[in-house]
């Protein structure tokens, strides 16, 4: 029972990072963009070298290098990546438990692999890159009417213009065999990813400490908070900049809306680095006296309202 409780405690962190609606919509857009990119690449950029020793490297590079680039871009553009970096830089990860670190890395990698996996699947289902890569490894003995045992000749088959008329008839059989292998691997990858997503959703439902309605509310809260924070931060930065520009020039050129904002808010006070650091970093679900704290900003506001900065500093950011 103790082992089960430990596993359940660890896996509940994973579930908290999977907000189904936002994640599915965002991942769907990423997948569609990747499909469009892969199609354009196949049409305009893919050209098999049709040379022994080069086909293999070029074909695998056409599948693997864009997938790696998409993965790195996905990691870089994920806000959680920089939350983790900030957490380690500001607090040396001392308040980040193993389960929380596992959950955080899981959501970063899970979001980042959508585009690479989509690229690999589409590449395999189209079969062009795989056919180019493995054409030179076709066993000549399996081809009827092919008496030349030479990988150099076979490697030229993807480029029909480099093959003699006598051998062109064999290309359809070779291409059919290689595309069968490629598409089989593609469908197996699709099945594997579908099974993995299904298992992760099962884990999410079974181990989540929150009910479905509260998880949905949390997702909406985080989205609203992020949107309002960005809008307010942009206005605050502009007003602060306007004050500094005005103090230097004696006036500042503002449009009508900005003048109305300046008249309404009067001034924008600078925010100390200490306060910025308190709302920056990794955060997982917490409660205070039975009431939920949905974000670092929510937690900061709660403790600030009580004027209890000491408790705010001592409060663990994640459950150990």
UniProtKB/TrEMBL annotation:
It is found in: Membrane. Its main location: membrane. GO terms for cellular component: plasma membrane. The keyword Heme does not apply. It is a multi-pass membrane protein. It holds the Pfam family Ca_hom_mod. PANTHER family: CALCIUM HOMEOSTASIS MODULATOR PROTEIN (PTHR32261), CALCIUM HOMEOSTASIS MODULATOR PROTEIN 2 (PTHR32261:SF3). This is Calcium homeostasis modulator family member 2, tandem duplicate 1. GO terms for biological process: ATP export. GO terms for molecular function: monoatomic cation channel activity. It comes from Myripristis murdjan (pinecone soldierfish). The keyword Calcium does not apply. Belongs to the CALHM family. It comes from the Eukaryota. The chain crosses the membrane at residues 23-44, 56-75, 96-122, 184-203. Keywords: Ion channel, Ion transport, Membrane, Transmembrane, Transmembrane helix, Transport.
């Amino acid at each position: 029972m103790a082992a089960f409780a430990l596993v359940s405690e660890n896996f509940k962190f994973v579930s908290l990072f999977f907000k189904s609606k936002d994640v599915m919509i965002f991942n769907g857009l990423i997948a569609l963009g990747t499909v469009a990119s892969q199609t354009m690449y196949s049409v305009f950029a893919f050209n098999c070298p049709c040379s022994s020793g080069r086909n293999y490297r070029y074909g695998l590079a056409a599948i693997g290098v864009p997938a790696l680039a998409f993965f790195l871009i996905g990691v870089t553009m994920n806000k959680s990546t920089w939350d983790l970096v900030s957490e380690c830089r500001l607090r040396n990860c001392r308040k980040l438990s193993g389960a929380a670190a596992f959950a955080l890395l899981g959501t970063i990698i899970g979001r980042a692999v959508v585009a690479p996996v989509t690229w690999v699947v589409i590449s395999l289902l189209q079969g062009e890159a795989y056919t180019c890569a493995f054409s030179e490894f076709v066993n000549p003995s399996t081809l009827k009417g092919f008496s030349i045992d030479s990988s150099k000749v076979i490697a030229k088959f993807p480029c029909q213009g480099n093959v003699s008329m006598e051998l062109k008839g064999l290309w359809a059989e070779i291409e059919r065999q290689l595309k069968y292998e490629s598409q089989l691997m593609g469908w197996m990858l699709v099945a594997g990813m579908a099974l993995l997503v299904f298992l992760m959703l099962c884990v999410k439902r079974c181990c989540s400490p929150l009910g479905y309605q509260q998880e949905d509310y949390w997702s909406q809260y985080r989205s609203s908070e992020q949107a309002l924070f960005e809008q307010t931060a942009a206005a605050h930065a502009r007003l602060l900049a306007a004050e500094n520009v005005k103090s230097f020039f004696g006036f500042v050129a503002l449009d009508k809306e900005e003048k109305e904002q300046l008249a309404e808010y009067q001034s924008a006070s600078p925010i100390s680095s200490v306060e910025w650091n308190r709302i920056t970093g990794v955060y997982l679900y917490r409660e205070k006296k039975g009431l939920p704290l949905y974000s670092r900003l929510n937690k900061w506001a709660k403790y600030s309202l009580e004027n209890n900065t000491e408790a705010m500093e001592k409060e663990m950011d994640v459950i150990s």
